[in-house]
Design a protein that fits this description.
- By secondary structure, this protein is α/β, with parallel strands linked by helices.
- It folds into two domains: about 1-240, TIM Barrel (Alpha-Beta Barrel); about 245-330, Non-ribosomal Peptide Synthetase Peptidyl Carrier Protein, Chain A (Orthogonal Bundle).
- The chain contains 14 helices and ten strands.
- The protein has helices spanning about 25-30, 45-50, 50-55, 75-90, 105, 120-130, 150-160, 185-190, 205-215, 230-240, 245-265, 270-280, 290-295, 300-335, and strands spanning about 1-5, 5, 10-15, 40-45, 70, 95-100, 135-140, 165-170, 195-200, 220-225.
- Strand 9 (about 195-200), helix 9 and strand 10 form a beta-alpha-beta unit.
- Helix 6 packs parallel to helix 7.
- The protein binds flavin mononucleotide.
- Flavin mononucleotide binds near residues 40, 41, 97, 201 and 223.
- Flavin mononucleotide binds next to loops.
């Protein structure tokens, strides 16, 4: 897929996720094979007022090429000025968040509130395209609610205003995360959108991602929850690997991720608190994961946390090895 001058090396993209798509995790997803990893949503006004926290969102690594920054806001002038600032700070592509359902965002006419007014959505794109010389993409939901599914109107409006591509989470704002993403709407959008479509919603296994491309004809797929604690979904897509990561693989990556996260956050106490959620995801599907999650929330310091994790993942590795040995023993016995 091409986004202005940038060609993505494959169709697999890490979805922007607040509190997850920070530099350390984006870099890991890219190393694992994701073609791109946009930032989480960043306030255009926050960028202008130069708040420290907002600037941290724009910290990125050399390997992040193209560096794709998602901004949000409801006012065209502020969005254009925020876009300019983001480009100054290194953005190669800008994305506009038009899907966030959170009230703090929608009450200012930003995020999914833009779905109710394609003209206003287009005015944000037009203001940004006029001000900066990088591709501008948008990320929408399929509509505000079941009675106002307007993704095709949105695509036409933002394309007319100069948007380069459109990503769609195939649920309405009213659905939040309930039900299933309606991929037929992605196919419908592909058919009628003047600009390339990136499909999104309910990819949890590599095969789901391939199926989304096959069934909808979208040019690329964004993976969100399916990549939480599971950046291997990208290596499995790229290399066609069948197997899930072993506990030992997870523990090795956790150490790397945690160290990068500590340097990124600076403040150790906050870093530990924020990292605990990644641990909740990294243990998914392992023996005693529930008790691991409960205990992890009680640990506030680096060394005790690492020791606890090491012992959990090494026990999980032993459990898996025993289970494999038992299967192979039973298979041999069955063969006589
Ligand atoms: C923890 C979390 C944070 C999210 N933050 C953002 C965000 O900052 N910007 C955005 O456009 N979407 C955000 N989303 C939505 C995802 O990008 C994606 O559209 C949604 O999760 C559906 O895809 P999935 O089924 O692959 O998870 C977030 C989702 C999650 C789970």
């Amino acid at each position: 897929m091409k986004l202005g001058p940038h060609t993505l090396k494959n169709p697999w993209i890490l979805a922007p996720m607040a509190g997850v798509s920070e530099m350390p995790y984006r870099v890991i997803a890219l190393e694992m094979g994701a073609a791109a990893a946009p930032t989480e949503l960043v306030s255009a006004k926050g960028l202008l007022y130069g708040q420290d926290r907002t600037a941290r969102y724009l910290t990125h690594a050399k390997s992040e090429k193209p560096f794709w920054v998602q901004i949000f806001g409801g006012d065209p002038d502020a969005m254009a000025a925020g876009a300019e600032k983001a480009v100054e700070l290194g953005a190669d592509i800008l994305d506009i968040n038009m899907g966030c359902p959170v009230r703090k965002v929608t009450k200012n006419g930003a995020g999914s509130a833009l779905l109710t007014d394609p003209k206003r959505a287009a005015s944000l794109v037009a203001a940004m395209v006029k001000r900066v010389d990088v591709p501008v993409t948008v990320k929408i939901r399929s509509g505000w609610d079941a009675h106002s599914v307007n993704c095709v109107d949105m695509a036409k409006a933002v394309a007319d205003a100069g948007a380069t591509a459109i990503a769609m989470h195939a649920r309405t704002r009213a659905q939040a995360y309930s039900g299933k993403a309606d991929w037929s709407l992605i196919a419908h959008l592909v058919e009628h959108s003047p600009i390339p479509v990136i499909g999104n919603g309910d990819i949890f296994e590599p095969e789901d991602a391939r199926r989304m491309l096959r069934e909808t004809g979208c040019q690329a797929a964004m993976i969100g929850r399916g990549a939480l604690g599971n950046p291997w979904i990208f290596s499995r897509l790229v290399h066609g690997e069948q197997t899930r990561p072993t506990p030992t693989m997870r523990w090795a990556l956790i150490q790397r991720h945690f160290n990068a996260h500590l340097s990124f956050m600076g403040d150790t106490f906050r870093a530990v608190k924020c990292f605990r959620k990644h641990l909740m995801w990294y243990c998914h599907g392992l023996n005693n994961a529930t008790s691991f999650r409960r205990q992890v929330t009680q640990i506030d310091e680096v060394e005790p946390l690492l020791e606890f994790c090491e012992s959990f993942f090494s026990q999980a590795e032993n459990d898996e090895r025993h289970a494999r040995e038992e299967v192979s023993f039973n298979a041999k016995s069955a063969l006589g």
